[in-house]
Amino acid sequence: MLARAARSTGALLLRGSVQASGHATRRASSGLPRNTVVLFVPQQEAWVVERMGRFHRILEPGLNILIPVLDRIRYVQSLKEIVINVPEQSAVTLDNVTLQIDGVLYLRIMDPYKASYGVEDPEYAVTQLAQTTMRSELGKLSLDKVFRERESLNASIVDAINQAADYWGIRCLRYEIKDIHVPPRVKESMQMQVEAERRKRATVLESEGTRESAINVAEGKKQAQILASEAEKAEQINQAAGEASAVLAKAKAKAEAIRILAAALTQHNGDAAASLTVAEQYVSAFSKLAKDSNTILLPSNPGDVTSMVAQAMGVYGALTKAPVPGAQDSVSSGSSRDVQGRDASLDEEFDRVKLS
């Protein structure tokens, strides 16, 4: 008895395994697997079972046992991610440009019960919903925004599909636009627009470069003028300092010469040396008369070098000698007489020169 039950159970298990191995072939031929009492459901699949025409339960992956005749597998739903190609269709943008656009839809069945009883053909329903949603979303955008906001367009289509497909037990994971075809004339105008934009940017960059160049040149000239003025200022300061140093050096040299001359005059025969020097200077000055002007003043006896030297030495002696007390009045009176006499002689000489 037990052996017979074991043989019958093994036969049923063997038959169920054979039925499970040929599951794909049977679904391809008949569309749905048949009730063989013992069934093995593959992973990531959900088999919807009806009992006497009414929903009974959903078979989980693994071993499942059904009642013959009463139970029937009504739907088989795949829980894997499904890829659906959305056919190419025409859509009109906000600026009245007709586009040919297609896409790819990625979805997954989240609730096998709703996917089985909520809609007749879930994939077809989602495909049609994706096409209509894409047309409505493209109608809200201009042609330029269609290319710039491609990601936001895909996200908007996914949100719209998920709102409607929630009652079908389907969730749209993502939607991708594959190709966007524009009319040839529109394509040519877009190409011209791109070329114009590039020329505009090139012109702007060139003008900015010219402006920067002019600014740099002006800044260079400004710096050059500033440096030139500073150099001229430094040159003038150095020149003034050099002239001041030269004047100071000349003054020191002259003071040293006077000191040496004074020291020499105090030595032996200093008066004779001074007389010789005065005579030489007189002769040199007399040789230069009447070279710069025709009008000159001469003493009464210009050829008498001895008297001129004696007069110069007398003046030097009077300056070097200390004044004697009591004799100042006589000296001053004599000096005044000498001065008057010299003035009279100079007047006579001047009149003579004018007459001549």
TrEMBL record:
Residues 36-194 form the Band domain. The keyword Nucleotidyltransferase does not apply. Belongs to the band 7/mec-2 family. It comes from Ceratotherium simum simum. Keywords: Mitochondrion. This is Stomatin-like protein 2, mitochondrial isoform X2. Residues 329-338 have a biased composition (Polar residues). Residues 325-356 are annotated as: Disordered. It is found in: Mitochondrion.
